[in-house]
Specification:
Seven copies of one chain form a homoheptamer. Chain A has 77 residues and is mainly beta. The first copy, chain A, has one helix and six strands. Chain A has a single domain, classed as SH3 type barrels (Roll), CATH 2.30.30. Chain A starts with 5 loop residues before the first helix and ends with a strand. The interface between E and F is medium-sized, with 25 and 25 residues. Strand 4 of chain E pairs antiparallel with strand 5 of chain F, so a sheet runs across the interface.
Chain lengths: 77, 77, 77, 77, 77, 77, 77
């Protein structure tokens, strides 16, 4: 067992596509550009995905305390 | 990969138009004038945009803990 | 670009009329008398403004963690 | 402009009647006896006032994080 | 005016009956046995009182962040 | 009056059955195995008890900030 | 009685399957890969399980402040 921590996993995902589930139930998708110790996250080519629509943003700075989880990969239902 | 952090992205956006999504579901738009380590943000030429209306404010000091995300650019639906 | 911070903007507004939007959706209006690092704010000639009514208070000490934003000026719809 | 802070205003109100608006929408009224840096407040001759009723308490220790605002004076509608 | 603080009032109530109003709207009644700086409280002969029923507990450790207020005495409606 | 604190009461309950009331209104029952300064709690032979059902878990690590109260004994209605 | 703490129990579960109950009422299941002092948790082979569906994620970084409890084992209803 290594001493890897959650922020190491986040660090390995920089430059890759991630899915962020927010506490208000919505998701933002994008390329992980940067993060800090509060889990504040910068996404590029970001999209806010709701049940009804997708809204594109160039760059998005997501405040860490809104995040339920970050998935550094694809999902399949 | 640089060591850029979310607050660097915010810093680069000073003087530009930003969109702030708030936890109550509304948005404020305006020119980013200043911020601090709590993500408290000062906007100029600020507008509060809801589904029904737009309300103009000269200056707005937004408390950081209300913010879901900040988008330092334009969005298209 | 100066190094001005959100609390500098608040400081410049002392003695002026401000609008405070609260997390419960209501607003308090009044003359900004004092504040501290938690954004606790003292208003004089304060009024609590709801959709239905206005209630006058001589002085009001507003706890900072209830605040969505402070507008140090007038608004027009 | 003096360097007065919100807790100074609270301190000047010790011994006087205050109105405390709580986050659950109710109010407690009473004589301000003591407070601390968390805005925990002790009231004497306290009353909890709701739309429907008034309930008297000898002494009340109100936890600061429930408070929206404190008004150290009377209000008129 | 003494320098008494809210926790002094709590300390004087040790061994006496207290009423604790919780953020979920319910009350717990009991004999105050102990507390700490987070306002975590130990009650003995505790009862949880709701509109519909009373539930008895031998001892209850109440987490401070659930508390709206503590009344170290009796109330009358 | 001793200097006992809430965590002392919790410490004396290690190895005994406890009831934990959670902020979402549900209860978990089990044998108290361990806790820390955040009131994070480990239960063994844990059961989640709702109005409709009981769900058994071997071990449960409950995050302290969800807890309303812990009762280190039995209750009777 | 040992001095074991909740994070020791979590540490012993690394490499095993765990169930995480979230504050929004949903569960995520997966293999516990890593955690930190905030109870941020990395799961592999993660699944988000709701009443209606199961959604698979390769890896999931769950923010600790969303967690009600972690069960490092199986449950039976």
């Amino acid at each position: 067992m290594t001493n890897q921590r959650p922020f190491d996993t986040l660090n390995e995902s920089i430059g890759n596509g991630v899915i962020i589930r927010l506490k208000d139930g919505q998701e933002v998708h994008g390329t992980l550009k940067a993060f800090d110790v509060h889990m504040n996250i910068v996404l590029e080519n970001a999209e806010e995905v709701t049940n009804e629509s997708t809204k594109k943003f160039g760059t998005l700075i997501v405040r860490g305390d809104n995040i339920i989880f970050v998935s550094p990969g694809n999902s399949s239902e």
